[in-house]
Amino acid sequence: MDLSEFQQITDDIRTEVGQVVQGQEPLIDMLLTSVFARGHCLLEGPPGTAKTLLARCLAQVISLDFGRVQFTPDLMPGDVLGVNLYDFQSGSFRLTKGPVFTDILLADEINRAPPKTQSALLQAMNEREVTIDGTNYPLGGEFFVIATQNPIEQHGTYPLPEAQLDRFLFKLLVDFPDRDAEISILSRHAALPVETDKGRTELRRVLDRDTLLAGRALVDSIRLDETILTYIVDLVRATRTDTEVLHGASTRAADALAGAVRARAALDGRDYALPDDVQALITPVLRHRVVLGPTAEIEGRTSDDVLQTIVNRLDAPR
Known about the structure:
ATP binding, 318 residues, Helicase, Ruva Protein, domain 3, ATP hydrolysis activity, single chain, Rossmann fold, CbbQ/NirQ/NorQ/GpvN, Magnesium chelatase, ChlI/MoxR_AAA_lid, alpha/beta
């Protein structure tokens, strides 16, 4: 696969998903970057902003197995991973696999479940395998989690622990579409029966398993210049010494940012990365990986604000 073929495939994906999810084009691009960078993705936003619909449509255009878990306060780890049940006919225990045994897992409203259940995904997301009763079960190299969550200020939510947040390549903030996009959405729905399930539109499958592997191999072939690597490291290290940050980003975060930069360059049709790639991705990669200090919180500063200040303070390579 070459860059032109790769671009054609990703353009087709954007077109297919855009038929159903309107006004969220930047989010679609970020999800594609996440898929080819082999990173999991966390979508945060208020209800009714097409988070679940976006994840479902992306899964439709990729010819991989798809599973969904609706996280609730009474959900148990076994409901996600699976359990060994005794089979009276054979006289032995048999594994009943949970929804985690799939290629694309939609973890819907992940912060509605208590921490014990949230942690069931830690090993799966980091190692792409799960351990049940002492036996390891691989999930496959294509295993990919798209999790949605409501803002943590909402009633009945449990903030994800830092260790689990660090498993997500991106944390993407989903906002309401602009006025024109909302009018377009309602106009399209006005031509359908009222009870139509808008999320069940059949989309053309654009990407199969072999094409996905070829696209990821193309991303792997992109090498980052030493100046780009140094820029990434300096930005990440700056989060550890900034007076507004209590806990800065880790080396794993720097490595994740480098991988995302390579995927973004390929999506843009380039076999080289630019400082603009780093600046465009540093916020979604690091916003959930830094913990702000009391000074920033008192002043009402967000992680995005602090990260932008750090970017503005450091000179980009020329």
